[in-house]
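Structure first, sequence second, as always.
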């Protein structure tokens, strides 16, 4: 039986959710088809790969880079109070 890491709980409605290494409040920033690399990777939900298939392909690394930039830009805009 696996034990959960020590964490603080976050109240959601009447339930309680454990938040191990991330904040209780979060947003999802999918990359969608906002960059040509997303058409080549074929996954609008974010970069992914199957473990054990060797190193990630170049298109997967490019898609992950685009996703990381999009998250950072969205977080900076939220912090600055922009929409």
């Amino acid at each position: 039986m696996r034990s959960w890491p020590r964490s603080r709980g976050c109240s959601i409605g009447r339930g309680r959710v454990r938040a191990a290494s991330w904040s209780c409040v979060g947003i999802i920033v999918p990359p969608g088809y906002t960059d040509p690399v997303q058409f080549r990777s074929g996954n609008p939900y974010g970069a992914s790969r199957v473990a054990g298939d060797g190193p990630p392909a170049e298109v997967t690394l490019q898609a992950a880079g685009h996703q990381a930039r999009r998250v950072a830009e969205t977080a900076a805009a939220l912090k600055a109070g922009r929409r």
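Margin note: The two ends are 44 Å apart (CA to CA).
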